[in-house]
Design brief:
Length: 605
């Protein structure tokens, strides 16, 4: 949650038992693999997917309900990005081995870029050309409102044209000069060339043509592809998904979440698969997955941060513990349009009282066992960078429930039976605020991801600290995909606008591209601005981060949102505490939260 990237660019990262092994393997994992505690197969690897998570999207253009890192990782193994930005080599940058483009030459005025494609082919033998990029461009431009990575004013709005020079060169013009680093890492990296000669149609029996070159045609093609992508059980058999450009092809994809990849024999890129068969295994809980690790049926898995004391036990079974740090932030978005609490959330003093009731230091040390760091704003703080402002670093709202309670009582709230109630409605400085009705109770409800003991413990700790401020906090849990689908952007009158707070970030809520701008997250109308946060001044700052080459622009943005609190900031944990079979190497754990199976290899064989 890149997070994220969706299946295109930015990501949500989503991670989280059975008491005995037999129950764990039956209910938690939909299938075993070929590895065992006695060794491993040289051409197979079993990778554990995050707990209580099932991959549910294959199309390399993400929609809001399908935002997750693992969908993206699977998709990128089948259809390589134009420009693959990742940290799989140990530092974040352009990974040209797994990219379809070989060069991106910006004009001197930074108002356009000319891209060069490599001599690459689809698995059916047809060449990958500029036309395949144009196909993606036309679909996204005509259906931008449905594209999860869309933010008004950003791609594709700020791409005024795409002109094909020849089969391997094309030029994208911009509406103005942009920060080249941001444009390359955050926008151009979202482009996913797709097989126009196979996908440019409106039905299974339809003929392929140039339908995408008209807006009406592009909408029809989009609808056809999205409908096909909803048929998860048909992924492995549908001819649509057989033509790929990446190092792997799809062998099977079950609705229960098990995915099998096999090496693409026709792949002609630089990032060829080292291991032929990759089994991606689903689990209902982290405990179930840990039991599978103990049984030796998982080669690359994870444990809860609370289980780090068991490191010696896993080492004795032939594993190495490798914490996976992420370039991410973690938070709970407010629904500013919720009919019951939206007006309260819109009051800055109320958000300040809520934030002061979150003890990030204790949560990081106790709940996450030291594998998380407090985060006080929109820029990752787990890794050193020049992007974090002093205001964010210094935490403008330290934990203090007594001060938080006083802040509420000074704004027209009175504690009754342990819960604050608005007793002085109005818009004055010492009143509850505009739109907050007299008698409103300060009661918040969160829909939180299930399947993670760490998340459950954090929610319980928050419930306790909120109660000291006089804020009632109730918790409901659901699988990750359900949480995401139930907490989208909405208007107050919409039936689906009843959610108040949402949490899906056990392993980080949002994984950034290399350049941590907030256009999708916090800009008015941003594609992943789930809570409908809107601040015109912040919009201006976000725009500056995309056009200025100076880190000062990002720092101003960092300071503004550290103070304005568009969400509840929470500790940023490691993506996961990985448990890796000895002998498995060839890669670094990508801080952008993608996994890269083509890079994995058994080094002791």
């Amino acid at each position: 949650m890149f997070l994220a990237h969706s299946a295109t660019g930015r990501r949500w990262a989503l991670v989280a038992g059975a008491a005995v092994l037999s129950g764990a393997l039956l209910t938690g994992c939909s299938g075993g693999g070929t590895s065992s505690s006695g060794g491993h197969s040289t051409d197979t690897i079993n990778y554990a997917l995050p707990a209580n998570f099932t991959p549910n999207w294959i199309l390399p253009v993400g929609t809001a309900s399908h935002l997750n890192t693992n969908n993206s990782s699977i998709s990128q193994s089948l259809w390589e990005p134009l420009i693959a930005y990742d940290g799989s080599t140990g530092e974040v940058g352009w990974n040209k081995k797994n990219s379809l483009a070989t060069a991106a030459d910006f004009a001197k005025d930074s108002k356009s870029v000319t891209i060069t494609l490599g001599n690459r082919h689809w698995s059916d033998g047809k060449p990958v050309t500029s036309r395949d990029v144009e196909f993606w461009f036309n679909l996204v431009k005509a259906n931008k409102a449905d594209w999860a990575s869309y933010s008004p004013g950003k791609a594709p709005d700020n791409w005024t044209s795409l002109k094909i020079v020849d089969d391997t060169h094309f030029t994208i013009a911009f509406d103005k000069a942009y920060n080249q680093q941001w444009m390359l890492a955050n926008e151009l990296s979202m482009i996913r060339p797709m097989p126009q000669h196979v996908w440019d149609k409106t039905g299974d029996a339809g003929a392929v043509s140039d339908l995408d070159r008209t807006k009406a045609g592009a909408k029809k093609v989009w609808k056809y592809l999205n409908n096909a992508a909803k048929n998860i059980s048909g992924y492995a058999s549908d001819p649509l998904w057989k033509v790929v450009s990446g190092p792997y092809t799809l062998k099977s994809f079950s609705t229960a979440g098990r995915v099998e990849l096999t090496a693409n024999a026709k792949y002609d890129g630089g990032g060829k698969a080292n291991i032929k068969h990759v089994n991606l295994l689903p689990f209902t809980t982290t405990d179930a997955e840990a039991n599978a690790l103990r049984a030796g049926t998982v080669d690359y898995g994870y444990i809860n941060a609370t289980d780090l004391s068991q490191e010696a036990s896993f080492k004795s079974r032939g594993y190495t513990i490798k914490p996976w740090a992420g370039w991410a932030i973690t938070y709970m978005p407010y629904n500013f349009n919720n009919p019951a609490m939206g007006a309260v959330f819109k009051q800055l003093y109320a958000r300040q009282a809520i934030q002061m009731s979150v003890d990030q230091t204790s949560l990081s040390k106790v709940v996450f066992n030291g594998t998380a760091v407090p985060t006080y704003g929109p820029i990752p703080q787990g890794q050193a960078s020049d992007f974090v402002s002093p205001e964010q670093k210094n935490n403008p709202y330290p934990f203090d429930t007594a001060k938080a309670k006083k802040l509420l009582t000074s704004h027209g709230w009175t504690e009754r039976n342990g819960t604050m109630v608005c007793t002085d409605a109005g818009s004055g400085d010492d009143q509850c605020g505009s739109g907050v009705a007299k008698g409103t109770k300060f009661e918040m409800h969160v829909l939180s991801q299930s399947g993670s003991t760490v998340t459950d413990n954090m929610m319980s700790a928050l419930q306790s600290s909120f109660s000291k401020t006089g804020i009632k906090f109730s918790i409901k849990t659901a699988p990750v995909n359900s949480v995401l689908s139930q907490t989208g952007q909405c208007k107050s009158a919409d039936p689906g606008c009843k959610w108040q707070l949402s949490f899906f970030g056990t392993a980080g809520s949002w994984y950034f591209p290399a350049y941590p701008s907030g256009d999708s997250l916090f800009q008015t109308g941003g594609g992943s601005n789930f809570g409908s946060y809107s601040n015109p001044e912040v919009d201006k700052l976000i725009t500056q981060t995309t056009t200025s080459d100076s880190t000062a622009a990002v720092q101003k943005y960092s300071a503004a949102l550290a103070k304005d609190l568009p969400v509840i900031w929470l500790p940023e944990p490691d993506y996961q505490v990985s448990v890796v079979k000895n002998g498995l190497g060839g890669f670094a754990q990508d801080s952008l939260a993608n996994f890269h199976p083509a890079m994995w290899k058994w080094t002791d064989n």
